[in-house]
Every structure is written in structure tokens, then in C-alpha cells.
Design goal:
The strands form six sheets. This protein has a seven-stranded antiparallel sheet with strand order 6-2-7-8-9-1-10. It has nine helices and 27 strands. Helix 1 runs antiparallel to helix 3 and helix 1 runs antiparallel to helix 4. It is an alpha+beta fold.
């Protein structure tokens, strides 16, 4: 929701630089910036919050500088433990407190201290918002964008009295941009069932947890540890599942490029999983660290090269995804998006992409290969799928089932066809002649329709004629039989030679 009243608050007079309102026009003493101006800006935020009736705010889309970039300049002193101590003690290798995550609610007092951290450029950044009511965004050069559902005229006056410059704006340039395309996959029970399956059968084993912008935690998974890892993830984190780390350290190091950026992920002998981004200048240091690891992998850094197996965003406890950040769709996510739209019994159109020798037909339905097993190609007997379909042929089929965990869709072509056995029920009690199509130990099969692929019925050996000696029945012989029963449900037609009349019914 776009808040109706948005003010840009700056310590700089926009009239002095009309082309770029709020830009600094002269040097300012550092002590003054972290003293009088800073306190005035914090009091302005408090005044707008009071005018809106807000005393608690939520952290949205928190971020930090890249915490482990080998060869980069050191992070700002006092960043995590000194700057974010109000959200809890540091936990984990990233030094971030548990309370620094999307959706974490804080009091107005804590929110003001977070604004102070951002004004000082101490590394951490987040949006501070009360849903559909109030928002504080800290911009560059000590500018604030404060949004409210109320005009806050008194707060505007108080802000001016503090020597600051409030300006009405249509929107905050730091508002979260949310794309409308696609549906974000939730890290729900179905997602975790897919994780279990992928870890067990597909060699997956490395989970990336992006809990803040600019930092990630890595978890190595086994089938037994998935639930334990799930329980300790940060709320609303973005997740990506990757193939497992490799114990072949030599091969991993051999994959280092000659130049560019790469992210190394490795497991220490004590079980900790660490990561670092490095450029070619820092490759020797990265190689030294990985050489001492028990398992490792090199990950691409650039977005268009990062292709995990699948991704998700953790939902809240009620199952709803309220996080606004999104993951870049992986191939598995695109499959999930398609599979989530399919319903059992619906008709789909696709193109035959492969006819396998083992009898399965693959049909491309919107970029996903669904399958049709031989019995579902036709009501009539099919010896090989090529007898009824060909690669490139467009067909319609009915969805029999969808397995999102194993990423499989089962189709039926015969579900759109009339069952030829149903009208054959009218033959019950009649005598007819038909060719023997198969001879088996327990009897013979006789075709009861004229078509070459017509329905067959069984003459059980107990129903074969026991009159005068006759030669053993052979395939192709014509046999006079009586139709005893036609059951479309069990797909059985019972015939008898013994009970057949001397001639066929007229």
C-alpha cells in the first residue's frame, strides 16, 4: 500500500540547490552531524510516529555489507555487536543477532536507535514500517523519507522548528519494489518434502539461507538433519537448495577460474560451514582456506549464472508468505509453478517429445515433460507407443495425477476416448466366430471385433470343446464361441467354445 502522506526530511535547505533538493551544499562538522542534526532527525521521526499513533515498527528487508569478501576493505568497526546489540547478542558465524530479520517487531525506542545506526552509515540498513500506517526509510546524506496515513501537520511544524526541511513527496525512492510476475514458492511442508526427496535421491545437500541482504548462511543437509536445520532458520529467509559439497578438494580447486569473482563454500574439520567471495587477487588465500577443508564447492556470484535446484521464501507461522523479497526462479521453481496449476481430471494439450523403448511416452506441456504409460495410451491393446503416437505429434490428454515432490505428472490419452468395451455388453449371450490371437497355458484369446486391434476375450481351458478329438488351437485359427460376460470395469470378456451354438446368430 502506498501511504498517502510522504515527507522527505533533510537538514539541508532544498532552495539552495533546486536541481538536486537536499544535496549537501557545504561541509559539516562530523561531531555536529552525529550530534545536533542526528538528534533533530530522530526527534522528527518520533514526532511523526506520535502523530500517527505508532509505537512499534517492523524491520523490513534488512541488509548488511558483504561480510566475507576476501581482499575487500575491512567492515566498519563496531558494526554488528555494537550497532545491533539492541536486537540480541550476536549468534552464528555472521555475527548478527537473531532479532535482525525481516518482520522482526521492535519498540519505537529501538527503531530510533536503528535509524541512528543507518544515519551514521555503520553498515546495517533496513526499512522500518508499520503495515499500511507508517514507514521510515533512511536515504543517503542524512535524508529521511517518512510516510503516514495521516497528514501529521503538527509533526511537520515541529520538524521545521528543529531546523530541518520537510517536503511533501509522492513516494519514497527507497520503497520496496515488488515485481508482479510469477508466484513465489513458499518454504512450506510441501517444499521440505521436496528437499527430503532431493537430498535422498538427487545428490542435493547444501542449503543457502539468505536471511539478510548481503549475507548468507550455509547448511549441509542429510536426510536425518533436514528438520533440525529447518527449525533454526531465520524467519522469512530466502532459501536455495544446491548440490552437496564435494570431498574431492583437488577437483574443486582445479575449477577456480583465471579471473573474475567466485564464492567458495567449504566445511571445516570441526563441522562449521564457511563461505567467502573472492576475486583473482584473493584466489590464493581462498585456495589456502579450501585446501584445509573436508568438503567444498565453488559457487557463481553473478545472478544469471546462479542456478540452484530450487528456491523458496519461508512463510510466517500461519503459512502465508509476507516477505516482499523474492528468489530468482530456478528450473525446479518453474516446474513447481506449472505443477501447482494442474488439477486431476483436467485436459491438457502437449507435444510428444520422446517415445521411450521401455514403453513410456513423454509429452511436453508448457516446458515440462509429463508421462503416459502404455496402458493409458488407448483402450485397445498397444504393443509399442509408436503404434499410436509419434514424436512431434500434438495430443490432448487428461491429468491422472501430479506429484510435486518428485516433479512428475501422469497423463491419460484414453480418458478422452470412448471405451470400446461398453457397447460390447450387448453381445452377452450371443455366439460368434473370431480369430485366435494368443494361446496361453490357461486357454486362448479370441478377438470378438472385426478390427485388427479389436477387443479380445478369454476362452478358459475349461470352456474349450471336449467333443471329438480336435487339433490343438493355434494363433490365426477361427473359433466359434459364446459370449458369457463382458465386464468393462475389470476389462474382461469371458467366452466359451463348449457352449457355442453350431452356428453364429443371424
Amino acid at each position: 500500500m502506498q501511504l498517502p502522506y510522504i515527507h522527505r526530511i533533510s537538514p539541508h535547505d532544498p532552495a539552495e540547490c533546486p536541481a538536486e533538493p537536499g544535496r549537501r551544499t557545504g561541509g559539516a562538522d562530523s561531531a555536529d552531524e552525529h550530534g545536533g542534526i542526528e538528534e533533530a532527525l530522530l526527534r522528527a521521526v518520533a514526532a511523526f510516529a506520535e502523530a500517527t499513533g505508532v509505537d512499534r515498527l517492523a524491520l523490513r528487508e534488512p541488509g548488511v555489507p558483504c561480510l566475507a569478501h576476501l581482499g575487500a576493505k575491512p567492515q566498519v568497526d563496531g558494526f554488528a555487536p555494537n550497532g545491533l546489540f539492541l536486537l540480541g547478542p550476536p549468534t552464528g558465524a555472521d555475527g548478527l543477532p537473531d532479532g535482525f530479520h525481516d518482520g522482526a517487531e521492535v519498540s519505537l525506542g529501538v527503531a530510533l536507535e536503528l535509524v541512528r545506526i543507518m544515519l551514521r552509515g555503520s553498515g546495517a540498513w533496513c526499512r522500518l514500517e508499520t503495515e499500511d500506517r507508517f514507514a521510515v526509510h533512511v536515504g543517503w546524506d542524512q535524508c529521511l523519507y517518512i510516510g503516514s496515513v495521516r497528514p501529521c501537520a503538527e509533526a511537520v511544524a515541529r520538524t521545521r522548528a528543529l531546523g530541518l526541511f520537510p517536503e511533501r513527496r509522492d513516494r519514497s525512492p527507497y520503497a520496496m519494489e515488488t515485481g508482479a510476475e510469477g508466484v513465489q514458492r513458499a518454504g512450506d511442508d510441501d517444499f521440505w518434502a521436496t528437499v527430503h526427496w532431493a537430498v535422498t535421491t538427487r545428490g542435493a545437500g547444501l542449503l543457502e539461507e539468505a536471511h539478510v541482504e548481503g549475507a548468507a548462511r550455509w547448511h549441509r543437509l542429510t536426510d536425518d538433519s533436514v528438520e533440525a536445520v529447518r527449525a533454526r532458520l531465520a524467519p522469512r529467509a530466502r532459501l536455495a537448495l544446491w548440490p552437496d559439497l564435494s570431498p574431492d578438494i583437488g577437483t574443486v580447486l582445479g575449477g577456480l577460474p583465471s579471473e573474475g569473482l567466485v564464492e567458495g563454500v567449504w566445511q571445516e574439520a570441526d563441522g562449521r560451514i564457511l563461505s567467502a567471495v573472492a576475486d583473482e587477487d584473493a584466489f590464493p588465500e581462498l585456495a589456502t582456506r579450501i585446501s584445509r577443508a573436508t568438503a567444498a564447492a565453488l559457487m557463481p556470484v553473478y545472478a544469471d549464472e546462479r542456478v540452484p535446484l530450487f528456491t523458496a521464501v519461508l512463510p510466517d507461522s500461519d503459512g502465508i508468505v509476507r516477505a516482499r523479497w523474492r528468489t530468482d526462479p530456478a528450473p525446479g521453481d518453474r516446474n513447481w509453478a506449472l505443477l501447482s496449476t494442474l488439477r486431476r481430471g483436467e485436459t491438457v494439450t502437449g507435444t510428444v517429445s520422446l517415445v521411450a523403448d521401455f514403453g513410456v511416452t513423454f509429452v511436453d506441456i508448457g516446458g515440462f515433460d509429463a508421462t503416459i504409460n502404455i496402458p493409458e495410451l488407448s483402450w485397445r491393446r498397444v504393443d509399442h507407443p509408436c503404434d499410436v503416437v509419434s514424436v512431434g505429434q500434438q495430443i490432448e490428454a487428461v491429468v491422472l495425477g501430479v506429484d510435486p515432490v518428485r516433479e512428475q505428472v501422469y497423463l491419460s490419452r484414453k480418458a478422452l476416448q470412448d471405451d470400446p468395451m461398453v457397447p460390447l455388453r450387448a453381445l452377452t449371450g450371443r455366439t460368434l466366430a473370431g480369430p485366435i490371437t494368443r494361446v496361453v497355458p490357461f486357454g486362448v484369446f479370441v478377438r470378438v471385433e472385426e478390427a485388427e486391434n479389436g477387443c479380445e476375450g478369454l476362452v478358459h481351458r475349461s470352456e474349450l470343446s471336449d467333443s471329438a478329438p480336435q487339433p490343438a488351437p493355434r494363433v490365426g485359427d477361427t473359433l466359434l464361441v459364446k459370449v458369457l460376460d463382458v465386464d468393462p470395469l475389470t476389462r474382461r470378456i469371458a467366452l466359451s467354445q463348449r457352449q457355442a451354438a453350431p452356428q453364429s446368430d443371424p
